[in-house]
Protein 1
Amino acid sequence: MNKRSVTAAIMAGLMAASSLAGCGSTAKKTSTKKSSTKTEKKTEKTEDISGEIKFDWWGGDTRHQATQNAVNAFMTANPKIKVDVNFGSWDGWESAKALEYNSGTGADLTQINFSWISQYDQGGSAFADLNEYKDIIDLSQYSKDDLKMCEDSNGGLAGIPISMTGRTFFWNKTTFDKAGIETPKSVDDLISAGKTFKEKLGDDYYPLSLSTYDRALLMTVYIQANSGKPIINEKGKLTASKDDIKKGVDFIQKLQDNHVMPSIQQLQEDGNTALNENPKFIDGHYAGIYEWDTASAKYVSNLGQGQELVVGQELTGMGSKGLGVFSKVSMLFAITKSSKSPKAAAKLLNYLVNDPEGVKTLGTERGIPASKAAYDTLTKEGAIDDMMTAAHKSVTDSKPLYFSPKFDDASLKDSATGIYQQTFEALSSGSLKSDDAAQQLYDGFQAVLAQ
């Protein structure tokens, strides 16, 4: 894990100044979303805030650089506050942070996942109630519904939603053109594409590639499309029966059996790399992904020369009750309960999510902002690219259902030991029958919801 310490040196200030010259793509979009230009009003009270704080986050290189630049600029503008940063890749990050949150040794300001509120903040023990710092953090920039989702079990505001996100399809149009077919609009189109790819392009070409977690999410969409209800509702109850889950499992296996996607074993043989770094995705052999609507940039940037990635639509034909699409809080900024300088942390938080300079420096590294002020700033800058906008619209236009943070509990989602990994890997290899896979998933959900 990379660790770096940022100080308010002259070099840092210069880096910040240069970084503010422009961020993100130059593509523009038309917005119908209501926005506000209200930002932090400097008062004697906020200007007197001082302290030394730690700030941590996970992500890729471009997120690291943008965030570090924003921190540098913040310290230049606020010389009474010193910020030390710690950042790294996702691998192993949650385990390390869980220990810190549970022991009260976490960073003052920390980037968290939506599910961490219920996992690590029982009774408001890990994260501060941000309502206590509303004179510093402009909460009026967020919808009441978005803030409501971020409350802890005591009703305290455990974090600020950075962005909202959902899953949609992206297709390598170049490969589909090579196969002589259009990108899929329905489940039938997708299954038919599997046959066409095999016949016209070869056994090593697939219209879609899904990891174990991707399969769990798409299974959920199938179940929800047939029930019209979130698989885990807002009261924390599982709405799906074991039979419902079996039908979802069978749907996922049907895709593999019809050459729509490679097996988990095939993906493992490709090497221990993320899909956007997989050579078979890069050269177009794997021609489709099911990803967060804000994640397109890392795939587009890695595609081979001449390859074109396009946004798909939510597939029809999943079920009779709708599309089954969901939307959730992508990630949040939170202040730890153990922070010795929470006001300084709150001032940095507000700078990152509401202040025009901080917002422009971060760009869309964490998605399309949930803050109305940030959204307005980036729209005026032309910094929200067309692909991200189209993908986000694909989700929001599909009337997304509620997504419970319990679905992402570590016991289910962990990439090494989680129920999703164990179940879909075994199902993919044929060592686990669909009845047993459904029972395993059902029991896993019930165990999490009983906590």
Note: The beta strands are 51-58, 81-88, 109-112, 160-165, 167-172, 288-292, 309-311, 326-335, 401-402.
Protein 2
Amino acid sequence: MIKLLVAVFCLGILMLSTDVLPQSTPPQSTRPVKLHGKLSVKGSQLIDEHGNPIALNGVSLGWHCWWPRFWNKQCVTWLATDWKISVVRASLGVDPKGGYLDKTAWSKQTLDTVVQAAIDNDLYVIIDWHTEGTKLAEAKAFFTEMATKYGKHPNIIYELLNEPVKQTWPQVKDYSTEVIKAIRAVDPNNIIIVGNPHWDQDIDQPAKDPIAGQTNIMYTVHFYAASHGKWLRDKCDAAMKKGIAIFITESAAMQASGNGALNVTEWQAWVDWCAKNKVSLITWSISDKDETCSMLLPTAAGDGNWKDTDLKESGKRTREMLRKAAEK
């Protein structure tokens, strides 16, 4: 009788524990940073702390100054648990009205919320200085502050410049070298991502003339599948053969304008190429603008918990892709 009572008591405790624990919370062993730890670059490959090649998959939040309603812990948690992302890109709008230069304190507070939410959810997070210009003094001060505040966390990835448009590679290289030095004075190890000319499509230029004397440096490529096809993947292949590491920090299936129909065939070719080459892939964007590349409809709540009816076609396909990638 005593053994029976003990068994019933233990079963009751187990059932109570199951009811109390949130069912959407992934087990510790499957959380990205818990599983992979500190990242580094070896040759042209991103690797985890166990020395294994790794490709991160995630989404970019839209400009913080235009879609702040999605910059909260609940939204990041939803993306972690339902969309199964391993990385989130926090695109800090620098130049627009209401952006970092205009509302600095509020902008940093908004960014802090997302970075801390990523850390709490055991995600990698890209701190993205989202501008086309090379504002060296402001960038050095910003990244020094971010490295001081967050550099101890293995979750952190720095993106120095969104999409250079008018700058040459020597100009982008000089700018990036100075900002890298500022970060490395505080944070010697976390990954740093460098842009390149022509909206991050001239990856052949840093491949010929990479930044020297630094470790854990990667270079970004941005693609929009209806505009950028095999020719850009060929440039990526050639660049990686020369020994530089690529991290695709922005992509989507439509035209480079952010509008137009999805080219699903070409987008899938990119997704397959990234999986084959262990290249990290981030899709643009978590926002509800009236454009094809914004993945949400205005009905989507700011804190997540979205239904299929809240997602545009790009959002539905991206969610499906991310969930499949997480299963592998």
Note: The chain is about 40% helix and 15% strand.
Protein 3
Amino acid sequence: MQRNQTSGQARILSISLSSHGFGYAIMERGSRLVGYGNVVIKKNKNARVMVHIEKIITRYQPDVLALHNVTAKGTYRHLRVKKLHRRVLALAGKRKIKVVKLTNRELRSALLGDERGTKHEMAEMLAKQFPDELMSRLPPERIFYDSEDARMDIFDAVGLVTALQSRHQANAPSTNLTNASS
């Protein structure tokens, strides 16, 4: 059973899809991080990611799902990840979960106050905000020729949920709040 959003008990799930698999974070109003993690998948990625996401949705019963806007101008995602994104949107629609999509610029602006900030700067800020949960998971800063550490998926997901929570607390108009089919 989902919580009544007007009672202040709304639960937000964020999912950050990547080439590794995905990261997720669950937050309740009041900025309480309820859960987080990442799942790395090697084979049959989209099908296996969907199984894991369905389990997370069933366990946490979110009222809102936060995702990256993978179709925004300047956003580059592999076709497989874009197809997976559409499947996650369809699942949210089936479960009647409201969806909010944030661009990378919106995310950086909300968290760092600078849309040109880096992912590692966001990760460091989040590790300081949630030291007990995230500090030990903070990967070293990436060197340009190295692949991104799969743990960054956690920080992407925590960043999404934190940015959305900040937006809600500031009572900013939620123009990106859409039905899952959009």
Note: The chain has six helices and six strands.
